[in-house]
Design goal:
With 176 residues, the protein is α+β, with helices and mostly antiparallel strands. The chain has a single domain, classed as Jelly Rolls, CATH 2.60.120. 20% of the residues lie in helices and 32% in strands. The chain is built from three helices and ten strands; from the N terminus they run E-E-H-E-E-H-E-E-H-E-E-E-E. The strands form three sheets. A five-stranded antiparallel β-sheet has the order 1-10-3-7-8, with helices on one face. It has a three-stranded antiparallel β-sheet with strand order 2-9-4, with helices on one face. A hairpin with a 2-residue loop joins strand 7 and strand 8.
């Protein structure tokens, strides 16, 4: 069986937000000419998740963002925290440079971003393809949920993000 891979690459410069990737996935499906099967959407990052939800409604997105930032406090030392920061803060032990595999100079404290990714998103999702496009519910879209975007200030590099879209055709689907 032949499969197709499309990588969505982007720079993430805002701390926490949703990015609707549904049109990009449907465009990749269209280019592959797959009419039925499955798409696996996978993030290659520990602080960037994938969700299937209602992404088109801005008030709902604000509610979700507020809930995630309120539920998992930010590290007091994080570059996101300023005197105007309106969400709870706490002390965590982790900082980016603690990872022995980290090959970048990054002085931020992002334990909360890792915890939020675990609590409020998935590293990958599977969505059916039917009639050459994602088989989603009426209000569903597929989105990246960023928890640790960076603006590049100080020694904190802008995040280069990659999401993999694996398109896997199915020869025949029989409804039962």
């Amino acid at each position: 069986m032949k499969a197709f891979l499309k990588e969505l690459k982007f720079k993430s410069t805002k701390p926490t937000y949703f990015l609707d990737i549904t049109p990009d996935i449907n465009a990749a499906i269209s280019k592959s000419k797959v009419k039925q099967g499955f798409v696996f959407v996978n993030t290659k990052h520990t602080t960037l998740g994938i969700v299937v939800n209602e992404i088109a409604e801005p008030n709902l997105l604000e509610d979700i963002l507020h809930h995630t930032l309120h539920s998992i406090p930010e590290d007091k030392r994080s570059t996101r925290v300023s005197k105007d920061y309106k969400h709870p803060t706490t002390d965590y032990r982790h900082r980016c440079q603690d990872n022995p595999y980290c090959n970048e100079i990054d002085e931020d404290y992002n334990a909360a971003a890792h915890i939020r990714a675990l609590e409020f998103s998935h590293p990958s999702v599977v969505v059916p393809i039917l009639a050459g496009k994602l088989e989603l519910g009426k209000y569903q879209q597929v989105a990246a949920f960023e928890f640790d975007g960076r603006d590049g200030k100080g020694k904190n590099p802008v995040r280069d993000r990659t999401i993999q879209v694996w398109i896997c055709p199915a020869e025949k689907i029989t409804k039962i």
